[in-house]
# Entry
Amino acid sequence: MNIFNSTVSFKVRFPRRNRASLFPILALGVMSFPSSIWAQLTVNLGSAADFAILAGSTITDAGGLSLVNGNVGLYPAAGSGIGLSAGQVLYGSIFKSETSGPLLNTAQIDLTTAYNDAAGRTPTIDYGAVDNPLGGQTLFPGVYRFGHAATANLIGTLTLDANGIANPVWIFQATSDFVTAAGAPGSPASEVALVHGAQAGSVFWEVGSSATIGTYSDLAGTIMADQSITMDTGAQLSGSVLARIAKVSLDHNIIRNPLAVPEHKSAAAVAGVLLATAFVRRSFLARSARDTASRASCP
# Structure
């Protein structure tokens, strides 16, 4: 019997005098419930996993000072629609349809497959169309669905707790748009905290239309949008932004793909970009050091 897709109803009667003694046991069972059945298989990104940014129409960067850790690709639109320079792409390369068409076509196909997989998972919890369904929550691995929010889908801190589960995976299904609250420098109004073994590479955001990551948000995970993804001023992401059909828009952002390999770029190239972008230098160095340490500690 598949416990994930089956419903079992039963009733057990205990003598009245023994019912009180059962409460601690029942409470323990409820507390351990998430560990036993909320675990999910990961979403296989295929060749799209190598990209920090993948878009269909354009990739823009207001100010030209964003930093990207990982590959950048645009398909099927022409490479002239990529508004990033090679110096902004750390530990990766820029791929254009004119020179890397087959590779990018495969990446987009793999993205669509991953997007459909994530969209098709049965939700652990369906919040519906409410304001700020995720802010202030501590969530175990599972599938979480939500609709359009009047203000934002995430205001405050979302804590993802691995809870002792091996290979924990979180899948968030935004049936409409995905919006995070705008903050200020050094004071994000929306952020994701990873605790007890949670990793950015195991978090997936499937967005039914477009995503808008508010100013100075600090998020984690792979954002897969059917249409566009906008990173507002100063927003940071440990993960990747993958837009199936439309654009990816940047504005003084940091995007760190945890799968990127540091050896792809020389230390001199990294230092040159960081010196030219003092706005994000200290944060990028600290985050990259933690990402490197995390990779080194993996078996």
